[in-house]
Design a protein that fits this description.
It is built from four helices and no strands. By secondary structure, the chain is an all-alpha fold. Helix 2 runs antiparallel to helix 3. It is flat and about 35 Å long.
């Protein structure tokens, strides 16, 4: 299977005009965590996903 690459706007460019706050980002992360919990994802895997998502915080949140 050939892997596709993303070649559009960066995360920062895509979210620049959205006015996303840390509180907004946290709310989405909380919803994601609840969804993963409902899907019986193992705690260590949930943590890995949430750490990965949090790695995008500075590119998504308006500063």
């Amino acid at each position: 299977m050939e892997r596709e690459t993303y070649d559009s706007r960066s995360m920062r460019e895509a979210h620049a005009d959205m006015g996303i706050t840390d509180e907004d980002f946290d709310a989405v992360a909380d919803h994601l965590d609840a969804t993963l919990l409902d899907a019986d994802v193992a705690p260590e895997d949930r943590q890995t996903v949430l750490e990965t998502v949090d790695g995008y915080r500075d590119e998504v949140v308006a500063r």
